[in-house]
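Appendix C reproduces, verbatim, an entry submitted by the partner laboratory led by Prof. M.T., so that reviewers can inspect both the input and the predicted structure.
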Amino acid sequence: MDADAYVAFTERLIGWADANPEVRGLVALGSMAGKGRIADEWSDHDFWVVVDGGAAERLRTTQDWLPDPERIVLFYRETQHGVKAVYDDGHLVEPAIFEVEELSVTRANEYRVLVDKMDLADQMEAIAASTHADTSTVHPTDEFLFGQFLTNLLVGTGRWARGEHESGRVFVTQHAVGHLLRLANRHRRAELPNSLDNLDPHRRLETAFPEFAQRLAAALTEEVPVAAEGLLAIGQWVVPRLFVQHEPAVLAIAAKLHEAAETALPRHLVVGVHHVRLAMPPGGEEAAREFYIGLLEMHEVTTPRFQGPGICWFHSAGLEILVGVESPFVPAAEAHPGILSDDLDRAADRLEEAGYDLVWDPHFPGYRRFTTSDPFGNRLEFLQPRD
């Protein structure tokens, strides 16, 4: 949501509160209050609605009083007084609805009174001065845990994207993960009986859910937005039913996470090898085809640009090899490409059966490898990661 849309949304809330006789006041919190922090595209709408008795519970359980209710893809009760709503563009709204008498249980720091039909300004000043803990009880239903998981990913990614890296990291790697772990404890069967800790879902995770723990560890090695995407994928594996039930919300939030993740991906001057050029003597085209196609099972590029006398272009998976005539011809006896293989032993067998000499190197870290040469004496190295 851009700045103009954010202001327009706020003005619609003010208009609704002004016109509704049951509403006694509207209070903006956090960046919505506009005190010291300016709302940006990652800001949510965090506010209180103060109402006459009897109206509060209806507002906490229905979404039709919010702007554009038909665009809301997730709406759920977060606390005794608060709800959360996510729109189809990923915008998050966090209202809390209080009866006048309930303001005594609230706490606030940054705020701005937007609508005041009572002595709300004085009460808010007293609340801000004496801020004390909200004693309401949160009931951790599946809907609550799932909603918290999704919105923690959304808030954390948004904060990271605006430069609040530490706060964003905490929301994603701690808060969101904590709710995901509680869902896993409820919906995944532990591999070792009695390994779960019903007070701390982080305890003995690797024993209870080894595959989950491995996926989680891999996701958390990434930058925050990429990690958030990984956690969303893990969540779908943990509680697929909730993902199906709340598909519109999942899709909206996934789009926002992906938007942030794209900005987090590193940009490198060098990212890979498109092709390698090797030399061959004049008239070597058929020998090149017999070797690279016949033995190595590569394919010849047939684009006209790469056809003609003295040029052969081969490709397989992510590797392309161009073999071109050079005169005078000198084979590359030392300089060489390192070619990755998914089946090193079969490659070795085919080369040896065709009469090529292989030199194995058992000491290369992390890989099995051998060297050989093509029909023209160019050195080639073949590698496969060790198991």
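The radius of gyration is 31 Å. Additional entries are available on request from the coordinating office.
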